[in-house]
Amino acid sequence: MVNATNDGNPQAGNAVPVLSVRGLTTSFRIGDEWRPVVRNMSFDIAPKETVAIVGESGSGKSVTSLSVMRLLPKGASRIEGSVRLNGRELLTLDSESMRRVRGNDISMIFQEPMTSLNPIFPIGKQIAEAITCHRDISSAEAKSEVLHLLEKVRIPNAKGRFDDYPHQFSGGMRQRVMIAMALASKPKLLIADEPTTALDVTIQGQILDLIKLLQEEEGMSVLFITHDMGVVAEVSDRTIVMFRGEAVETGTTDDIFNRGKHPYTRALLSAVP
Ligand code: ADP
Ligand code: MG
C-alpha cells in the first residue's frame, strides 16, 4: 500500500525512512496565545534521498527544520506531532539524548557561515573540536581527520589553511569549511537551510555541486531548504512546496516542475528563468 505522505518517493516501503515527520505543528507564544506558524507537516526522507522544502520568506521552512532539531526557544514555542529519526521519536527525547542526536546523527548548515564559525579561532582548531567532542581520539588523529575533511570539501591547499581564521576565507570557502564541520560527525541527515542564498551565483553552483557530490560519497540524506525553485531543480529528488506554514504540494521534483498544480507552485515556477 502506498502511504499518502510518500508521494512520488521511489524508495517508499523499501526502507525505514531516515526521517519521518507526521503532523508537525509548531506554535509560538504571542502574549497569552499560541500562534501556529507550521501546521500539520508530514513527510519522509528515505536513505540517500534529497528532499527540498521550497517557499517564500516567512513560510515556516526554518521553523520546520529547527523543530526537527528541537532548537527553538523553550517556553516560547510548542512542537506537536511526531519526528522520527530511523524510527526513534525525537520530540519526547530527554535533552541530553537530543544533544547527542544533534552531535552525531543530524548536522545543519545555514545561510551565513560566518555566524556559525568562531572568528577568534583558526578553522583547523574549530573542525578538530567538532571531531573530538564526539570521539575520544588523539590530537594527531584529529588533525589528520581535519585535513581529510578539508580535502573532501575541496579547499585548495588544505594543509596550508589549518591556521587561517574564518575572515581569511571567501564566502564560498567559508561555506565549505562549515560543510566540513557538518560532516565531522558522519551524520545520517544533513539539513541545509538556504546554504547558498548569501553567495554569488557562480559560487552557488559550486556549493550545490559539492553537496550533491558529498551526498553520493557519504550516502547521507539531505533536507534542503530554499526559496529558489532554480536551486530545487538542481538538488532535490522530491520537493515539498510550503506556503503560509503548510505543505501545499509534495511530489517528485519532476512532477512539481512539470505537473505542479497548486497556484502557489505555479507562481514559484513562473519566476524561474
Ligand atoms: P522561512 O524560513 O520560511 O523564511 P521561518 O520558518 O523563519 O520562515 O518563519 C516562519 C514564521 O514564524 C514567520 O512568521 C516568523 O516571523 C515566525 N517566527 C520564526 N521564529 C520565531 C520565534 N522564535 N518566535 C516567534 N515567531 C517566530
Ligand atoms: Mg528561513
TrEMBL record:
Domain ABC transporter: 19-269
Compartments it resides in: Cell inner membrane
Coiled coil region boundaries: none
Transmembrane segments: none
Function: Part of the ABC transporter complex GsiABCD involved in glutathione import. Responsible for energy coupling to the transport system.
Description of how the protein assembles with itself and partners: The complex is composed of two ATP-binding proteins (GsiA), two transmembrane proteins (GsiC and GsiD) and a solute-binding protein (GsiB).
Family that this chain belongs to: Belongs to the ABC transporter superfamily. Glutathione importer (TC 3.A.1.5.11) family.
UniProt protein name: Glutathione import ATP-binding protein GsiA
Organism the protein comes from: Rhizobium daejeonense
Portion held of the full protein: 1 to 273 of 614
